[in-house]
Amino acid sequence: MTLTLRSLTRVALEEDAQSFASSLTRDVRTAYAGQGRVGARNFSALRLLFSEGQAPVLLMIDKEGRPLLGNLMRWPAGLHEGWNVVVLARTGSDQADTIGVLVTRLPSGERLLAGQALENDQRLSGIVDRATGTTLIFALPLALFAAFAAVRIINARVDDINATAKAVSEGRLSHRVSLDGSGDTFDRLAITLNAMLDRIETLISELRVVTDGLAHDLRSPLTRLKVRLDRAETEQNPTARSTAIALANEEADRLLAMLTTALQISRAEAGIGQDHFEPFNLSTLTQDLAELYAPLIEDRGFELKTDISPDVAVRAHRELMVQGIGNLIDNALKYGASPIQLMAGQTATHAWVEVRDRGVGIPATQRAEALRRFGRLDPSRTGFGAGLGLSLVQAVARLHGGTIELGDAKPGLIIRLSIPL
Amino acid sequence: MTQKILLVEDDATTADFIVKGLHEQGLAVDHAKTGRDGLFHAIDGSYDAIILDRMLPGMDGMAVLGAIRAAGIATPIVILSARSAVEDRVAGLTAGSDDYLTKPFAFAELLARLRLLMRRASAGPANAVETALTCKDLDMDLLSRKVKRNGRLLDLQPREFRLLEYLIRHKEQVVTRTMLLEGVWDYHFDPGTNVIDVHVSRLRKKIDAEGESPLIHPVRGAGYRLGARE
After folding, report:
1. Which residues of A touch B104 (CB under 8 A)?
2. Minimum CA–CA partner of A274 in chain B
3. Which domain range does residue B49 map to?
4. What is residue A323's predicted lDDT score, i.e. its pLDDT?
């Protein structure tokens, strides 16, 4: 099969070469007849240049054998008039070319050979090009039909995705893209989309829970604020009136702090802020916080002890870490008892900050609840994360891919915030 | 000469509140209600400070900020924004504003910061080579880190020293708790706590000896001021 193909190709190539040789010969001879040697030479140069893709071979010699034009150095031996197929060794290379040339003699005695290299890549690609052209003409309608059919199938799958997206955007969160079980590209796409929709559904339902809870928890402080403002309005005594307004203002401030924290929590939960991590020294940060809180802690009659390992380097959201640790210290002040211990260190994989106190602690059974919403929103508390307690620290931990652990200080509470190094 | 402020704010209630407050302080105010209008005012007039709301109809606050700075106008600008995340604040400051206040804010806070910016702008290039700061009978030597009141050497912790330094550098000006938290501790949020108050009260106890007139005065609803009694 292969042999036949090769010999068929060779035959095709040779026939091809012969007609090429004939037309080249004719053209050069015409140029010579019309413009003499100079004209023929110029013509040949141009022609050789333009037919490069066809690997042309051309040589004209005079009666003495001197080359007059062409791209061969010397007249090959063993040529006779008419069609010749010879193997030419190329000067300076070990590659041999097989050429097919037509040899003719001009009236004035010059000899001309014109033809082309056979079994040459360039020639082959020329032939292939022509063959491809022919095939395309037949293949085009087929391709169009296939494309048309493919588009119909794709449209159907895309329509399904569209319909799901539309349903989801209208609030019907449980819709998913259907798979046809073939495991093809569309199925893989469907799987990815469905995973994304799962995540969105979870986030939204979590958000609903948070906003429901938050809306509920806002009622008490808002009511208190309203009460104070009502009193301020009816108060006749100017001093009592300004006191009432000042108290109302404080209540409003607490509410704002609470909302800000709630916002921070939801941002952290949503992963916002991850691209604002920076490298810093956690030990220094913790030490600074200890120093910030020290006077307040002392004023409350507590003792503060620190045990901070030096140079714990982390890559984290600096401000959220400050707020988180501040939150922990604040909690200890509000709910714990002296002494308060502030510690920081690192393991092989994590950096951690720990706050311990000697209060009543949190029983193991209530720890999960405490992390969700520490002791209901109590706006009478001041400090970082007023009212939302450990929720913020939890969210900060999660943003960093870390954890919050509650433990028993026997007696008292241990809270450890760990983030990966 | 009366100082002139440009306020670019679309919310009528907020604008009213600010304009009234500034007038009471003896400041002249021009009020623009849109970004485009604000930009025209800023480029035309010469203001001592600009208060720019971030959320504006049409041309938004950040775009106005960019345009003002691109026009080479160096007037101090305070941004007002409901967006309180640290990333937003950083973005605002990087874009060319001089300060960033989150809404809602106390007017005293806005005023204190405005005055600070205007004083800084009119004072010219910062004198970074000062080695000593004084206020009345209080002397701070920044090189030896020694503080004396009436010749009496005070024993201050490093943080107390920095706190006093900040107050003295802003002497006779109202300094808010958040300004102190930013300037002395580099923390950028309102703790809502009296953490700062405790630090200041400790400092006051150290610098005001028996019989000496107090140097650090609490300013109701605002913060503190170091200087002469008013």
Report:
1. 256
2. B87
3. 4-123
4. 86
